[in-house]
């Protein structure tokens, strides 16, 4: 059974993370499905792709359920594939929209950050705890969005920040609930169609701030440091005590 659902419309695709029982946590399988979906969208020359999550939240981030049964090498590869997905979305020729809601964590927040237009429902929250177990995933992209000092304030304490702070620091561009999503998508279609496809591509290249190789190297260095299992286990134990 697929972990994503794709609604293919003439003007846009809506990709729904569909593991509500796991809070749309990013398993190895769902990451590969998302990579394939973006390959397919680009092949179809789809101008607009929307990401959303089924259930209580957009995404709870990295799926920790199989950590104890996987080798450190397997875990490092999983993090690399997530970083590959983030880079794929951030560099996609498709205009991307994230529709976030609920309590979002880690790589789920990074998925939002990778999109061009970041929308969140009232009451949404975000937390990026990767540095608690020594992982640098999406940190630089987050800093490029909100600024270095704001990123440091949030990341060094793994602070949970609400949608109001996310709106103030620029992480979220628009606060809108599910009842407004149709209008958000219509506005995004109008935005995409404001320029010819070739001009949009020129603008994207001119304004590109992505540092895919640098971001991937930072992730690999942090994830491949010996003791990843112990660091994750210590973090999970600390969360149970909190």
From TrEMBL:
Q: Does the keyword Lyase apply?
A: yes
Q: Name one GO molecular function term.
A: enoyl-CoA hydratase activity
Keyword Nucleus in annotation: no
> Which biological process annotations from GO are given for this protein?
fatty acid beta-oxidation
Q: Give EC number(s), comma-separated.
A: 4.2.1.17
Which keywords does this chain's UniProt record carry?
Lyase
**What Gene3D superfamilies is this protein classified in?**
2-enoyl-CoA Hydratase, Chain A, domain 1 (3.90.226.10)
The name of this protein is Enoyl-CoA hydratase
Q: What InterPro entries does the entry give? A: ClpP/crotonase-like_dom_sf (IPR029045), Enoyl-CoA_hydra/iso (IPR001753)
């Amino acid at each position: 059974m697929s972990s994503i659902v794709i609604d293919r419309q003439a003007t846009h695709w809506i990709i729904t993370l569909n593991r509500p029982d796991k809070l749309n946590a990013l398993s190895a399988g769902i990451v590969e499905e998302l990579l394939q979906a973006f390959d397919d969208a680009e092949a179809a020359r789809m101008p607009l792709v929307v990401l959303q999550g089924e259930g209580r939240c957009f995404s709870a981030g990295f799926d920790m359920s199989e950590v104890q049964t996987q080798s450190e090498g397997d875990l490092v590869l999983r993090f690399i594939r997530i970083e590959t997905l983030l880079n794929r979305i951030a560099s996609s020729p498709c205009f991307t929209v994230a529709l976030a809601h609920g309590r979002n964590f880690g790589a789920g927040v990074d998925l939002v950050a990778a999109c061009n237009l970041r929308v969140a429902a009232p009451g949404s929250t975000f937390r990026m705890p990767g540095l608690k177990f020594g992982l640098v995933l999406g940190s630089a992209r987050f800093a490029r969005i909100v600024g270095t000092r704001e990123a440091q304030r949030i990341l060094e304490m793994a602070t949970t920040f609400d949608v109001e702070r996310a709106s103030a620091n620029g992480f979220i561009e628009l606060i809108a609930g599910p009842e407004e999503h149709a209008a958000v998508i219509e506005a995004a279609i109008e935005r995409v169609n404001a320029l010819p496809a070739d001009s949009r591509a020129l603008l994207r290249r001119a304004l590109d701030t992505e540092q895919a190789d640098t971001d991937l190297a930072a992730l690999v260095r942090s994830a491949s440091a010996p003791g990843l299992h112990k660091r994750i286990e210590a973090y999970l134990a600390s969360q149970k005590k909190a």
